[in-house]
Give the backbone structure.
Amino acid sequence: MNIVLVVIVLGFLGAFIAGMAGIGGAIIMVPLLYFVPPILGFEQLSMQTVAGMTIVQVLIATGTAALVHRANNYINKELVKWMGTTIIIASFIGGLISKYITEYIMQQTFAVLALIAALMMFIPKKEKNENMQINFNKVLTVASTFIVGILSGMIGAGGAFLLVPIMLYILNIPLRITVGSSLAIVFFSSFAGFLGKVYTDQIVWNLAAAIVIGAIPGAYLGGKVSKHIPANLLKGFLAFLISGTALKMWISF
């Protein structure tokens, strides 16, 4: 079996989950790309290589899925404006910093962030009507988004697995608006992180191209499926996905 074919399949799976759950896919793509190739007999990819591939997958997946969610009116323009602008700057900085971070620190950073996000997803929350007017604290929004952007740009993630819990539990945004808006925000985040990694020569282009081939149809189908999943089931899936990944990363590292 060719490593390129493996990456195409993994890109499809990661992007499908991204489109369905409103995340960029890094929370699932990083462990998939890091652990699956050695299981299939290929050489293990470095964390820097995985981060470079993942940022490409996240960019394509969020851009494709955001278009689907926009058609369903699940994207809040005000949220995207404030969080998107902030995360572009922060993610670019994080992408530049990542070249000088050791493999161990990148692994531990990802595992810690996944664990924090998982714990936040289990906090009880009364669901709001998606048609209600959405108000949020702009200072808190910018501050939290900047921190997420730095960290996500560093580890090759768009940051949705952190933004989603923050939007749900700190900014009190309805679930489906959170899912749709986070995809648009993370598209900007991943684009900035991508530029940072290109500038520091951290992208393996043949593998990045393979991920794109799988990500486009995966993200489109995931976005279509999302509309038909009950909000509570979607939230439960997100909590399970994030906590499972956090546990796997902690055990492995």
Observations:
- The radius of gyration is 16 Å.
- The mean pLDDT is 81.
- The chain has one domain: 3-252.
